[in-house]
Amino acid sequence: MSGCLDALLGLLADGSWHTINEISTLEAFRKMKITTLMEMLNFLVEYEFIEVNQRLGYDLTTIVIEAKLTSALANFMRKIKWAERSIG
C-alpha cells in the first residue's frame, strides 16, 4: 500500500486536479479495481489529505472524478522538501 500512496502523492504533488482515469494508469494502480481506488481516495478525503471533485465530462454525459492534495498537505510537503534540500 505504501507504494500506492507514494505514487499517488507524487502525482498530486503538483497541486493540480488529476482524474481517476489518470491515477489508475500509474503502475501502482494498474491492477487495482476502480472501486478499491475510490475507497483509498475516500479514506484520504476523510482524513483531509486530498480533495475529490466530481464534474461533468466534456461530452456532458459522463461524470469525471478528480483529486488533488489539500492545501494544508501540499504546504506540508513543500516544507519537507525544503528541509531535505537544506540538510543535504
Question: Any overview of this molecule?
Answer:
This protein is an alpha+beta fold. The protein has one domain (2-87): Winged helix-like DNA-binding domain superfamily/Winged helix DNA-binding domain (Arc Repressor Mutant, subunit A). Helix content is 52%, strand content 18%. It has helices at residues 2-12, 20-24, 34-46, 71-87; strands spanning 18-19, 50-56, 63-69. Strands 1-3-2 form a 3-stranded antiparallel sheet. It is globular, with a radius of gyration of 14 Å. The chain starts with a helix and ends with a helix. The relative contact order is 0.16. The mean pLDDT is 93.
Write a compact overview of the structure shown.
The protein has 88 residues and is of the alpha+beta class. It has helices at residues 2-12, 20-24, 34-46, 71-87, and strands spanning 18-19, 50-56, 63-69.
Strand order of the largest sheet: 1-3-2
Order of helices and strands: HEHHEEH
Q: Kindly, what is the distance between the CA atoms of the first and last residues, rounded to a whole number of angstroms? A: 28 Å
Q: What does the radius of gyration come to?
A: 14 Å
Give the structural class: alpha+beta
The counted number of beta strands is 3
The CATH top-level class label: Mainly Alpha
Helical content (DSSP H or I, runs of 4+): 40-55%
* General form: globular
CATH architecture: Orthogonal Bundle
Q: What is the mean pLDDT?
A: 93
Q: In percent terms, what proportion of residues is strand?
A: 15-25%
The poorly predicted ranges are none
CATH superfamily: Winged helix-like DNA-binding domain superfamily/Winged helix DNA-binding domain
Number of helical runs?
4
The CATH topology annotation reads as Arc Repressor Mutant, subunit A
